[in-house]
From TrEMBL:
Gene3D superfamilies: PucR C-terminal helix-turn-helix domain. It holds the Pfam family PucR. PANTHER family: CARBOHYDRATE DIACID REGULATOR (PTHR33744), DNA-BINDING TRANSCRIPTIONAL ACTIVATOR ADER (PTHR33744:SF1). InterPro entries: CdaR-like_regulators, PucR_C-HTH_dom, PucR_C-HTH_sf, PucR_dom. This is Purine catabolism regulator. Residues 460-517 form the PucR C-terminal helix-turn-helix domain. Residues 11-130 form the Purine catabolism PurC-like domain.
């Protein structure tokens, strides 16, 4: 079925009342679309037209004034009218050559009624036809949608939908999933494929594309191209309905695929625990996807804070969203469900040099997605472990991702990064806290200052922190603390009494700076 519901100037000329007409200019524009018919007898019409109107006129507005005639025609062209039909006789006896030249230049049909015709009957006839055509278009669109819905219940692959779209419209269909090569229906030689893609890349009324969105992210693009005619309004509606159907099919397939992945959990858990060697991992990946050639990888963990309160929550859609975003950033994803966490094994498919930048962009898109912002999942911590080039060491990335989550939990909002490699001193402090008495070590260095502040309601700890951050610059420290130099000198003197005159010497200073961060780490834990 190749019904496109396009009513052109040429079609108009085949109807009654147009038997005695002559096209005197704009012959190449007879394929212009006609959406309505207007009778116009005024010469200023900029605000009267919406585009695609066929204009009927006796010429009374300009009579024999060539300048007014040219102005009127120029306005019609700029308003994207479909053509101008003029009744020859009472007010217009001939068409000036300059008018014909302008119409030919813009392929704008200029049609003469050689005999008197009833404009009212013309408008009634064409408007009735257009209204019936619009009703038929809606009926056909609804019938097409019903056929699509039936196909969605039975087809195994979206290719069946693409073939159905091509059969219905007759246009070349092009389908592209992000990161994959374009598919053509019907299939065509490589040279023609390049021609079609180039045509699609240029703004044109002979091509149209519809983005296919999954979880507010562009997952694929569906396009139609016609090298013979314009893409009709009806074809655009069909394209939109088809894109929606493909999105539903893809979402269903991805959901089923995600459910199947859950059956692989045990093997993946063993990988996280370091139970598989390099050859076993390589064989598994080759069976999973023969074209997959990973360049290292890392582990990311989403640890949910209140999953027990959402016992019936299905996190499959969250995993689909995660997969959709990070696959577009060049990662191949495996997911493992563990207690209150989802662990993602992320295999890098692009340059190792850019893995972190791509990861950061993916994290930002994840956090800004509607799915997250509308709180369809509980609050969670997101930690990224150490990047490893040898996939048999993925357990090390897993352990560091767990450590990142732990540090994030302790620091709360004070955590500065979700990447293990960015936490630096926080990792050292966490290690000391785990295997030693961190509070005792902190008090060994800072207790005199802490006790002084408690007793005198002072600000020595804050002064010490800023003074160290400013590398001992008294001027900069005073400015950042908003105090006069004399006040700062007094505080520094007090710090020397409490910590020793050597507290700014390199080794001792380094230890004090670390203990200040440890003190804040412990304070954050108490707040938690």
């Amino acid at each position: 079925m190749h019904e496109h519901f396009q009513f052109t100037v040429f079609d108009v000329l085949q109807r009654k009342h147009f038997e005695h007409t002559q096209v005197v200019a704009g012959h190449q524009g007879l394929n212009r679309i006609v959406k309505w018919v207007h009778v116009v007898e005024v010469t200023k019409i900029y605000k009267l037209l919406n585009g695609k109107e066929l204009i009927l006129s006796t010429g009374v507005g300009w009579k024999e004034n060539e300048s007014l005639f040219l102005s009127f025609l120029q306005q019609l062209i700029e308003c994207d009218a479909s053509g101008l039909c003029i009744e020859i006789g009472t007010y217009t006896s001939s068409i000036p050559q300059e008018v014909i030249r302008l119409a030919d230049e813009h392929h704008f049909p200029l049609i003469l009624f050689l005999k008197e015709v009833p404009f009212v009957e013309i408008t009634q006839d064409i408007h009735t036809y257009l209204i019936n055509q619009h009703y038929q278009m809606i009926s056909n669109l609804e019938a097409y949608s019903q056929q699509l819905n039936k196909k969605l219940l039975s087809i195994d692959h979206y290719h069946e939908i693409l073939k159905f779209l091509h059969h219905y419209l007759g246009h070349q269909v092009i389908f592209r999933i992000n990161g994959k090569e374009a598919e053509f229906v019907p299939e065509c030689p490589g040279k023609k494929k390049m021609q079609l893609l180039e045509h699609l890349a240029q703004p044109s009324n002979q091509a149209a594309s519809q983005s296919i969105q999954l979880f507010s992210n562009e997952y694929a693009e569906l396009s139609i191209v016609s090298l013979q005619q314009e893409i009709s309004e009806f074809a655009l509606l069909i394209l939109d309905r088809t894109a929606t159907a493909i999105a539903q099919h893809l979402l269903r397939d991805l959901y089923v695929e995600e459910k199947k992945r859950m059956q692989e959990q045990e093997w993946l858990k063993g990988w996280l625990e370091g139970e598989h060697n390099f050859q076993t991992i390589s064989d598994y990946l080759a069976d999973h996807d023969p074209e997959l050639k990973p360049k290292g990888g890392c582990v990311s963990i989403c640890k949910f804070k209140s999953l027990k309160q959402h016992a019936n929550l299905d996190l499959t859609y969250f995993k689909l969203l995660f997969r959709t975003i990070f696959e577009q950033q060049g990662f191949y994803i495996f997911s493992v469900d563990l207690r209150n966490s989802i662990v993602f094994i992320m295999l890098n498919k692009r340059s190792i040099k850019t893995w972190k930048t791509r990861m950061q962009e993916g994290v930002q898109r994840l956090m800004e997605s509607d799915f997250i912002r509308t709180k369809k999942v509980p609050c969670f911590l997101f930690g990224v472990g150490k990047f490893v080039e040898n996939l048999s060491l993925i357990n090390k990335s897993y352990q560091t991702a767990l450590e990142t989550n732990k540090i994030q939990h302790h620091l709360g909002k004070k955590a500065t990064s979700c990447f293990y490699e960015d936490l630096h001193t926080a990792r050292i402090i966490s290690f000391i806290h785990q295997y030693g008495d961190l509070h005792e070590i902190v008090m060994e260095y800072l207790e005199p200052v802490i006790q002084y502040d408690k007793k005198h309601n002072g600000q020595l700890m804050e002064t010490l922190k800023v003074y160290l951050a400013c590398n001992g610059s008294k001027k900069e420290t005073a400015e950042r603390l908003f105090v006069v130099r004399q006040t700062l000198y007094h505080r520094i003197q007090k710090l020397q009494q409490l910590l020793g005159a050597d507290f700014m010497k390199p080794e001792k200073r380094l230890a004090i700076e670390l203990m200040i961060q440890a003190y804040e780490y412990l304070a954050a834990i108490r707040e938690q």
